[in-house]
């Protein structure tokens, strides 16, 4: 049915009125008729970075801090030559703090992104760390010979090029990771030497990784570590030699199985010098031949001797070896006639020499003289509870992982 023209116009007016009425409802929430809502735009995030852009003498131990106002941090990167430095955000992500020391004499770049109601924001800072007046580095790690396999008693001995004053900071930067972890602890022997020993012998057949995360670590006034140092240590089979001075026998076991039984002759015991030390020894080095001279005596003195021996394996710093002695074959297995060493039949002494590894264990019993803990590598003579007291850290001893 066709509507009258008047009725159609009225209907159209109603529709238009409804549409303009909806627009008016929106304008009723505080407009002045000009279309301006009167709302204030949210401020964009503000990012602050410390150290500031262009800093050139930043201390390597300085913490890098990034903060955000009017928003939260989405991403923070601190790097040098593509190597990133770890850091952590707070719970609200308004602050980021670096967790690692910085490398000395190095250019760093900080990049940060934030977001908030006022939109995104970015900021960067380039700075350079200072060159230390005293450079701290690892001078030597023993064992550290590439490709060497060592015994289960082997300690890790780290020598520094400077006298360390802040031992706790430096020790905290020393990391030991083992495939078969066991508890262990560092002991400072002096200002330059720290030694790591496990509570029990290393589990055999594994690789241990030592890392000194030294770069940027403060070792003393104006002294900073200049570089990290890593060494791979291969632990071989469990070689343990059991020596009984009273029965004049030496039994060598590999991974718990006897592989050699040797008749030996030990120190005659007439003096302290000529008494073989009892206790847990470690094999230290070998040579063929070795010239042995009586300690503290010169030619012509009573008791002076100078002998050349073959296939000698050192087990203490006081001059004790396992070595060949063809002149004592008649006494081996029967009597102790040496000046303190363990001598054996030439064939068996050569076998021992050929199968030696630094850090193999030699347990000696049957004498009145005990091996001193600092005589060579006699570190196992000190109880572990006492050993770990030599650590500079007050927390629990380090264990590998």
TrEMBL record:
Domain L,D-TPase catalytic: 239-365
Pfam families (UniProt xref): Big_10 (PF17964), YkuD (PF03734)
Keyword Cell wall biogenesis/degradation: yes
Pathway(s) this gene product operates in, as recorded in its UniProt entry: Cell wall biogenesis; peptidoglycan biosynthesis
Active site (UniProt): 323, 341
UniProt keywords, alphabetically: Acyltransferase, Cell shape, Cell wall biogenesis/degradation, Peptidoglycan synthesis, Signal, Transferase
Transmembrane segments: none
Secretion signal, residue range per the UniProt entry: 1-25
Highest taxon, organism lineage: Bacteria
Protein name, as recorded: Ig-like domain-containing protein
Taxonomic lineage from the root: Bacteria, Bacillati, Actinomycetota, Actinomycetes, Streptosporangiales
